[in-house]
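User: quick one, sequence for these tokens?
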């Protein structure tokens, strides 16, 4: 899925209206996003990014865009808090823990993980600002 398609999907999910509990609601998803760059800081385009739910083995795939950006939306509900995920990209992998407040059904849930050379670095504090910028870019 291309960058624009992924961001359009994310925007549609964020803007979905209606009182019905559905998979597009914030409490049914956990987003992993970030940038993939080589050791010199150059973006790596077209790299496959995979997020696997360790509990089920279900895999979510995405590709990086021309800036090395990726956005993977996983289906995790309130009951999935603390669940382990495996992130794989460009030969590197890391374990993530889905951290969020299940009582908060307003704020987006997720984390940011960047690949810098061969090292994956989680920057969860940057998640919201990165998602907001990505969605702002997609709306232009």
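Assistant:
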């Amino acid at each position: 899925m291309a960058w624009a398609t992924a961001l359009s999907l994310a925007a549609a999910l964020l803007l979905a209206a209606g009182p019905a509990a559905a998979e597009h609601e914030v409490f049914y998803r956990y987003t992993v996003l970030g940038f993939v760059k080589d050791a010199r800081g150059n973006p790596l385009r077209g790299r496959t990014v995979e997020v696997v739910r360790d509990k089920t083995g279900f895999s979510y795939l995405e590709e990086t865009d021309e800036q090395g950006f990726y956005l993977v939306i996983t289906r995790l509900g309130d009951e999935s808090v603390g669940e382990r995920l495996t992130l794989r990209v460009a030969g590197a992998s890391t374990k993530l823990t889905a951290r969020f407040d299940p009582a908060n059904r307003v704020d987006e849930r997720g984390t940011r993980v960047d690949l810098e050379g061969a090292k994956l670095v989680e920057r969860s504090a940057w998640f919201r600002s990165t998602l907001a910028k990505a969605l702002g870019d997609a709306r232009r």
